[in-house]
Amino acid sequence: MKKILVVGALGQIGSELLIALREKYGADNVIATDIRFRNKEDEGDGPFEIVDCTDIRSLSEVVKKYQIDTIFHLAAILSAAAEEKPQFAWNLNMNGLYNVLEISREHKCSVFVPSSIAAFGPNTPQDFTPQDTIQRPTTIYGISKVSGELLCDYFHKRFGVDTRGVRFPGIISNKTLPGGGTTDYAVEIYYEAIKHKKYFCYLGPNTQLDMMYMPDAVKASIDLMEADPSKLKHRNAFNITAMSINPEDLANVIKKYIPTFQIQYRVDPMKQRIADSWPNSLDDSAAKEEWGWKPDYDLETMTKDMFEKLAVKLGVEL
Ligand code: AKB
After folding, report:
1. Which entry of 25, 66, 141, 185 is annotated as an active-site residue?
2. Given the CA of residue 184, which atom of ligand 1 is nearest to it?
3. Per residue in 31-61, pLDDT tens?
4. Could you report the per-residue pLDDT of 214-273, keeping only the tens digit for each?
5. What is the count of structural domains for the chain?
6. Residue 106 alpha carbon to ligand 1 centre in Å
7. Is residue 145 in some structural domain?
8. Distance of alpha carbon 115 from alpha carbon 100, whole angstroms
9. CB crowding 165-191: b at 16 or more within 10 Å, else e
10. 66 catalytically annotated
């Protein structure tokens, strides 16, 4: 049985991945870590440790204590927040990752490291962006993501560390709210639609971006770590996507459930600039071919599930 460490277990992806990992591998075999104190409800039953991944000693102690063999490294500052604090973001996103890779080399751990659509830039082909193409991002987050992809490849080739990763699009979930991302609007819009029947969107109506429902993001992370390594030609940073949508598409599907819903636009120039520098849609054929990636949700099925879950969570009838 694997012994798994989740770094950043209380974040948007970490909190839901943790539950799925504990269901699959057993609660005692999955150690949750974050820089914050535990919240029993958030992370369920199972071990929890305070770990700051920028401090290699705290990471090393926990890996030794639990004899960890697999690490899911999810601690990172997202795109919009990183633009506000570039130095802080670089330290967490790069030095935190370097520590995780170094500990993995020392203790022979496999590592999952998420990259992002942010690893592409304005001169990347925007539509059906290929797996291997130009990567000249213009945000500090994107620069940290493309550097992270290269670093993971380096640790694999140079030291034989079993590094694997995907380029996540915007992730939409009904549990933990995202924070500091450019794609966060796609989560906020559902909450605001239920609460106020109105949403002021900070991206323009035609801003086309890839998105994915959280259950598919969790499935992708686990499936890639379970994949036969002999089939993986790319290893790090597989393009994956479930839908390519814009705010108008989201507003239209929401109106099927809340006909009086209105979207208005108050564009945030910084977030718009970030979104415009990212692809409109990704080509995820390498992930499909090499480890059988296939999303379960599209815009319609995700929206149905979002409203069912959020109605219960927010105590409303739709
Ligand atoms: C963000 O918006 O920063 C993230 C991402 C696409 O990596 N959701």
Report:
1. 141
2. 2
3. 999 998 766 665 568 999 999 999 999 999 9
4. 999 999 999 999 999 999 999 999 999 999 999 999 999 999 999 999 999 999 999 999
5. 2
6. 30
7. yes
8. 15
9. bbbbbbbbbbebebebbbbbbbbebbb
10. no
pLDDT of residue 317: 86
The residue whose CA is least distant from atom 7 of ligand 1 is 116
- In a shared domain, residues 230 and 140: yes
Same domain, 153 and 13: yes
**Rounded to the nearest whole angstrom, what is the distance from the C-alpha of residue 229 to the centroid of ligand 1?**
27
The answer to whether residues 113 and 252 belong to one domain is no
Residue 66: give the domain boundaries. 4-169+213-239
Same domain, 105 and 17: yes
Residues 99 and 186 in one domain: no
Instruction: Indicate which atom in ligand 1 lies nearest the CA of residue 78.
Output: 3
Taking only the tens place, the pLDDT of each residue in 56-85 is: 999 999 999 999 999 999 999 999 999 999
Residues having CB closer than 6 A to ligand 1 are 78-79, 116-118, 141, 168, 170, 181-183
**CA 219/CA 5 separation, integer angstroms:** 17
Does residue 124 share a domain with residue 106?
A: yes
Does 253 lie in the same domain as 151? Answer: no
State the distance from the centre of ligand 1 to the C-alpha of 45, rounded, in angstroms. Answer: 29
Instruction: Give the separation between CA 157 and CA 152, rounded to whole angstroms.
Output: 9
Taking the centre of ligand 1 as the mean of its atom positions, its distance from the CA of residue 230, in whole angstroms, is 30
**Alpha carbon distance 256, 283 (integer Å):** 29
* Residue to mutate, 117, 240, 243, ligand 1, most ligand atoms under 8 Å from C-beta: 117
Ligand 1 atom closest to residue 209's alpha carbon, by position in its atom list: 6
Cα distance between residue 159 and residue 12, in whole Å: 31
Question: Which ligand 1 atom sits nearest the alpha carbon of residue 79?
Answer: 3
Q: Do residue 161 and residue 38 come from a single domain?
A: yes
Q: Whole-angstrom Cα distance, residue 270 to residue 73?
A: 27
